[in-house]
Specification:
Length: about 500
């Protein structure tokens, strides 16, 4: 089914002179440092423009507004959804207001700018408070159900964080002589309800890229409801659609680090190699392993629009970073070694062989409980999924499967997947050399898997062995790649 947004992206071609650039929460929290790197640095006059910045909320703000991403500590949204008549969420919203005003004081030197930013926070926070109180009162009547409005509530609260960071960044840049423009995609007090393409097109209709520097909210309110599908991954989707719809020549994601061959804290700063260029296929594998260069749906949008993606270090502005495009590899090689702790969910049923339906039932349960599938293996009577998600959610999946197949033996085990990712790996003997390296390191793999695409080779190991396995494979496949290749040929 083709949506209006898809049509808009198809009709617009990447023929502009501008870039669209994404700044994450940790980086935008260091906005004053960014003045000397990506915002201004040594740029003057026209060089300051023909750029669009899409910003996330400041670090920790979305956790406080929704729930903590890692610990599930409740924020405003989680408290409101379980509140009934309790107003504990109001205290949490008050704490968010204090956090926002503290950020204003930290980032803005000028007293007048701080007052303007504080007024902005007050208006948004009080507006949200009034809205939630009204909704709570409305749903005290039997005809209205709070759960029917929770997704809209989640989007309303989440948009507060991005609106705040974009507005404050705009004030900061204006104070430093940049003609910055606040572009609010959050739909605040907007009676219209357009799709995503129309929301972005309308917002940029009068923007002059050559003379203005748009600072754009990472959240965009739209008919599709970004959080319904992407939850907290929405900012990269907004970023990618903005690049496609405005016809950017390049999309750039600024991170606090370079995209490297492994975690430098694990294998050593001197051992890692920065990746200069790769393709979207590799980026998809990284996303699958939780090492996101970009959300896979955002990558798809850029790829279809023919826009290359650059992943750069926000604090090393003169380094070109990593270019990701659709080009095939000029030189086959392993580019990244990464590991991910997962839970292996094994379903054994002696009568499974030759019977259809088992896999579909398991997938339905995993989808219902929003558990991420990293990898999967199966044989005649056993299906094993390697999953990333909360133990609570996976326990629910286990119970659902047991209800449908009461005679099945279901086992869960904490393991890790270590993956060697690269381009055109066929013919490099990655599997053989990796198994030798793991054996020499005293690590017994619990499983190994290689697809025919030649883009990754995966190994299942005990979680306690994950870091050692990453270091072992990085040493053999990347640091000593030339030696291993000669060894394999011999």
């Amino acid at each position: 089914m083709t949506t209006d947004t898809d049509k808009t992206m198809t009709e617009e071609k990447p023929n502009g002179n501008h870039t669209v650039e994404k700044i994450g929460g940790t980086s935008i929290s260091r906005s004053r440092e960014l003045l000397d790197s990506i915002f201004i640095g040594d740029r003057e006059g026209e060089a300051l423009y023909n750029r669009v910045f899409v910003v996330s909320a400041y670090a920790g703000m979305t956790n406080a507004l929704l729930e903590h991403k890692k610990t599930d500590e409740p924020g405003v949204y989680a408290l409101f959804s379980n509140a009934d008549n309790d107003h504990g969420w109001m205290d949490a919203l008050g704490r968010v207001s204090i956090m926002m005003r503290d950020m204003n004081a930290e980032i803005l030197d000028d007293g007048g700018d701080r007052r303007v930013a504080d007024d902005f926070v007050r208006e948004r926070i009080e507006g949200a408070r009034t809205c939630l109180l009204d909704l709570q009162r409305l749903c005290s009547y039997g005809h209205f159900r709070l759960e029917e409005h929770m997704l809209t509530t989640r989007e309303l609260l989440s948009g507060l964080g991005e609106a705040h960071s974009a507005f404050v960044t705009t004030l900061l840049l204006r104070r430093h002589g940049v003609n910055a423009r606040f572009v609010d995609l959050t739909g605040w007090r907007d009676e219209n309800h357009p799709d995503l393409g129309q929301r972005i097109s309308d917002a940029f209709a009068e923007v002059d890229f050559a003379r203005e520097l748009p600072i754009v909210t990472g959240y965009a309110q739209c008919m599709e409801g970004l959080m319904r599908e992407f939850d907290r991954g929405y900012s990269e989707v907004t970023f990618a659609h903005t690049a496609a719809i405005t016809g950017a020549r390049e999309a750039v994601i600024h991170k606090e680090f370079h995209l490297s061959s492994a975690d430098p804290k694990l294998v050593g700063v001197d051992a890692v190699q920065k990746i200069g260029r790769t393709n979207y296929d590799v980026a998809d594998q990284l996303s699958n392993m939780g090492m996101e260069a970009i959300h896979p749906k955002a990558a798809k949008t850029l790829r279809q629009a023919g826009i290359p993606l650059r992943v750069a270090n926000a604090f090393e502005p003169h380094d070109p970073g990593t270019l990701i495009d659709a080009e095939p590899a000029s030189e086959p090689r392993v580019e990244i070694i990464t590991g991910l702790p997962v839970i292996a969910l094994e379903v054994f049923e002696q009568d499974m062989v030759g019977v259809k339906g088992y896999d579909a039932t398991i997938l339905e349960a995993l989808t219902r409980h929003k558990v991420w599938i990293v990898a999967k293996t199966s044989n005649a009577n056993t299906i094993t999924h390697y999953l990333e998600g909360s133990l609570k959610a996976i326990r629910r999946v286990e119970r659902d499967i047991a209800k449908v197949y009461p005679s099945a033996q279901i086992k869960m085990r904490k393991v890790a997947i270590v993956s060697a990712i690269g381009r055109e790996l066929r013919g490099l003997d990655v599997m053989l050399n990796s198994l030798v390296a793991l054996k020499e390191a005293g690590i017994e793999p619990l499983g190994a898997h290689e697809t025919g695409r030649g883009v990754d080779v995966q190994f299942v190991v005990d979680q306690e062995s994950m870091n050692a396995a990453v270091k072992s494979l990085h040493s053999v496949l990347i640091e000593r790649a030339g030696e291993v290749e000669l060894k394999a040929v011999a």
